[in-house]
Amino acid sequence: MDEKFHEVVLKRMEPAHYIKYLNMQVRPYDMPPNDSHFDSQYHRSEIFYEKINNSFWVFAHESEEKTDTCYVMPPKKSKTDYFSIDYYQSKHTFRYQFGDKIVPVTNVTIFSGSSSTYKIFVKRKSPIRRYRLIFSKQYLHRFLNLTSDNARLTNSNVIIATGKGLSVRLIHEIEKIALDKLYFQLKYNKNNFNYNLSVTANAFNVTDQFFKLANIEIPPTRITDDQDLMIKIIHHLEKNIKNKFPGIDALASDFYISQTKLKKNFKKTFNTTPLIYFRRLQINYAQEKMQIRKITVKELAFELGFKKSSTFSLWFKRYTGQHPNELQK
Predict the structure, then answer these.
(1) What residues does CATH 2.60.120.810 cover in the chain?
(2) Which GO molecular function terms does the record list (predicted)?
């Protein structure tokens, strides 16, 4: 690579040391115990984390770097073998490196062992969101039931057994929905009475989805025509989140498919409906917009194609548990 990147080495994997490292330059004002804001290395950054149990931690870290940055994930040297699932998402292209291979992506998930190492290259002023789930080896053995006689020899299981290697793939649409929900819970729902239960349930769901998708033996055939069409439809929805939902009839007509088949195949592929998927995209966009600048609910509703701000607020509360005005206080 010709570009010069400022190298940041995350030296420790143990949750307590990891938190200490990330909290090194906290701004001097009162803050909740499990989130931090930085102002030295980053243009803007924040981290949220939660301890599920003594062997399972969850982190959500969003940052926008001042300079081109290379994050180095070295081997995790500690008394306990720790493993991590890392999810990286950005609207801009970033790169990951494992060995001599450097790959440009806009999203990726990486499962790494205690002896694994890789790098993430992020350009300046390119916001990136990262989720990190950290587990002990003993915990993963119990979670995946690796002690059973019928345990399958998958890539993930080999990494757990040896502590070496990586499992790398793009993030599935189902995972994106679960991750967005987890991020919102960690950031906004701390004061809710069911916060711990909700975060724990969603963290288990994300973990379960990862290993189900990672261990699927995919046949060496191309994606089916039906799946390809569903992907084209979600790309169409993503490009039009600032308009009102087109409706099943219009979508079916635009993509030359029956309404019944559209609803059936969309549900089968993404485990949700086109309308729910579209609304989640809009609410995610609204949350990001509210973080970047001050904007009224009425302005947000108008920008996203809602005729009434009250309708937008109802959808927002349905997915977040809070009215948009509550997040702006």
Answers:
(1) 6-214
(2) DNA-binding transcription factor activity; sequence-specific DNA binding
168-226 confidence digits (pLDDT tens): 989 988 888 889 888 888 887 777 767 887 888 888 889 988 988 876 544 433 446 77
Every domain range in the chain assigned CATH 1.10.10.60? 225-327
Nearest to 201 by CA among 182, 214, 173, 184: 182
Q: Provide the residue type at 106 as one letter.
A: T
Q: Which residue, chain included where needed, has tokens 């979600």?
A: 234
Q: Cβ–Cβ contacts within 10 Å for residue 268, how many?
A: 11
Q: Which CATH class is domain 6-214?
A: mainly beta
Q: What band does 111 get if pLDDT is binned at 50, 70 and 90?
A: very high
Per the CB < 8 A criterion, the answer to whether 125 and 65 are in contact is yes
Candidates 16, 321, 280; CA nearest to 197 is 321
* Amino acid at residue number 298: K
Q: Which two tokens stand for residue 3?
A: 């570009």
Helical (H) or strand (E) element with 6: strand 6-9
Q: Facing residues of 169 across strands? A: 109
* Secondary structure tally for the chain: helices H, strands E: 12, 10
